[in-house]
Amino acid sequence: DSGVTQTPKHLITATGQRVTLRCSPRSGDLSVYWYQQSLDQGLQFLIQYYNGEERAKGNILERFSAQQFPDLHSELNLSSLELGDSALYFCASSVGAITGELFFGEGSRLTVL
Amino acid sequence: AQSVTQLDSQVPVFEEAPVELRCNYSSSVSVYLFWYVQYPNQGLQLLLKYLSGSTLVESINGFEAEFNKSQTSFHLRKPSVHISDTAEYFCAVILLNYGGSQGNLIFGKGTKLSVKP
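YS: structure for the whole thing
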């Protein structure tokens, strides 16, 4: 158990819809990262927050947005969903802002029909 | 552009055989290097890391990796694999930029290790 909690574990929705994925980091970790894992693209970095502020942005689509709340949990919002958004979305956390030692949750599997 | 290359997408081996999972990176600056493992239906876990010092680093479950600066490689090895080692393995790198700042963690595309009885 990494200490990182993600909900929901599975989500099935239709094209055009909007979903929210939630992540609670390990106790004491200030950084939260979001990754997308798919068969064709592999593991893609989406975005990082550190202590409530956006710190780094990767290959995140404009239809996607995220935020980190004062209690340090984070949400990833995916809107106008397309079939190609079907993937496993991972949240990870770390103590510092820049580190290679991340702790990953078990992921949220999104299926868009 | 900075990249991490894992040369093999799949590596099938028999139980108790040795294995090497290859990882190369492209960078003109210093790096930190990592291997992560993802067991079926789980998130990634840090397996081992190289930050500085000895170029040979080991994990608690018998894996080791050696940083080779001249070949810009960080291959992962295990002399005798078990069925339980079946997983996907990701190599990752952080650039140490000029001036001492660090970049973000960059993952390779992963290598699926399949250990057969």
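YS: worth flagging: The two ends of chain A are 31 Å apart (CA to CA).
IM: good catch. Also The longest strand of chain A covers residues 42-50.
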